[in-house]
From TrEMBL:
Residues 1-25 form the signal peptide. It comes from the Bacteria. It comes from Gemmata algarum. This is DUF1330 domain-containing protein. Keywords: Signal.
Length: 134
C-alpha cells in the first residue's frame, strides 16, 4: 500500500472513531469528554510537520484514548519506558496529548516488546529509499 493511501486510511479510521466510537468507563475529567479507548495497546503516531522546515513528529503511547477538550479531539496516552537513552527515560510515564488533526498515520502494536522489535528490525535497501515497509 502506498504511503499516501496509508495516511488517508489512518485519518479516515480516526474520523470514524471520533464520529461513532463512544466508550464507556470512567467519567470524563472536568472540561473533557472521553470518546474512545483503544484498549491495552501501544500506539505509534506520526504527525504532520509544523512548517515546511520541520520534520514529522513521532510518538509512542500506551493505553491511548481519544478525548475532547474544549471541543477539540486529542489522542491521549502515556509514554512507555522504551529505551536507555536519557531523553527516553525523562519522557517515560508522562501523559501526552496530540491533536487528532495533526495525525497522519497510526500503527497499533499489542505490546511494547512488539513495537521495539518493529523499530529495531533491519531495514532493507528498498525501505531506506522510502519505497516500502512490510
Amino acid at each position: 500500500m502506498r504511503y499516501g493511501s496509508m495516511c488517508l486510511l489512518a485519518v479516515a479510521a480516526a474520523s470514524v472513531v471520533l464520529l461513532f466510537g463512544r466508550a464507556g468507563g470512567q467519567p470524563p475529567v472536568k472540561g473533557t469528554e472521553k470518546e474512545h479507548s483503544f484498549g491495552d495497546i501501544v500506539l505509534y503516531i506520526v504527525t504532520k510537520p509544523k512548517d515546511s522546515k520541520s520534520d514529522s513528529g513521532y510518538a509512542l503511547y500506551e493505553k491511548p484514548t481519544i478525548v475532547h477538550l474544549a471541543g477539540r479531539p486529542f489522542i491521549v496516552g502515556t509514554v512507555p519506558d522504551y529505551g536507555d537513552e536519557e531523553i527516553a527515560k525523562a519522557a517515560a510515564g508522562k501523559r501526552v496529548w496530540t491533536p487528532v488533526s495533526d495525525v497522519v498515520q497510526m500503527t497499533e502494536f499489542k505490546t511494547l516488546a512488539e513495537a521495539k522489535r518493529y523499530f529495531t528490525a533491519p531495514v532493507k535497501p528498498a525501505e531506506k529509499a522510502g519505497l516500502r515497509r512490510d
